[in-house]
Amino acid sequence: MKADKNYISSLAGEARCLPVEDASKMAIPEWYDEAKFQRYAAQAFYKRNAYAITLSVLYGLIAVMAVPSVLNVLMFTKKSSTPFTAYRRYLLTILHFTIWYRDPLAPGTRFWRSLMYTRKAHDGTIKRTSAAKEGMIISQRDMVLVQFSFAGYVVLKPEITTSKRRMQLVLDQMMGPALTSPNDDFYRMTKALLDGMWYYNVTLDYEALLFITFG
Description:
It is a single chain. This protein is mainly alpha-helical. Helix content is 71%, strand content 0%. It contains 11 helices and no strands. The chain has helices at residues 2-12, 34-40, 42-48, 50-64, 68-77, 83-102, 110-132, 140-155, 161-180, 184-197, 206-214. This is ER-bound oxygenase mpaB/mpaB'/Rubber oxygenase catalytic domain-containing protein.
């Protein structure tokens, strides 16, 4: 439990000022377990629950927009501020994370190229934001919160002990407080997100999805 407390303290402290790593430094971590990731756990779980996981990602994207530092970068890029641009951005996001959940992870694969594309996009955004406004970066903390939006709500359900504890801390101490008082830009950007994604899934309802996210 002490490690978990140090984890959240680090996120709230130094990780707020550390930009994401250079895309060229991407490598498979030593702790990566191919069998757990592909055949026995993560990707197999996705294949059994694809629709529910995709929906949970949508809730996560709504929630993370309540974090001002994340929202400010999204607004700066001007790539998701209208239903049309949001549709293009988030449909591409869905296509990418579908690759991550289904394809094998190894250098040279489609998975690898997708990750590299995403990391390079973040690199480019950091250069533009930092040039436009001092201190506006995509921080390590923000990337953790964005990653929570993709996996957090799912991980909180199964009994994945360490990951579950940390995701719960992120939810309780970062995501939850951010959702208590979102600003007007949050509502504008989430409306653009959901209006745009309605063309992908016509069952999406803005009021209902916000109600569930805040609930």
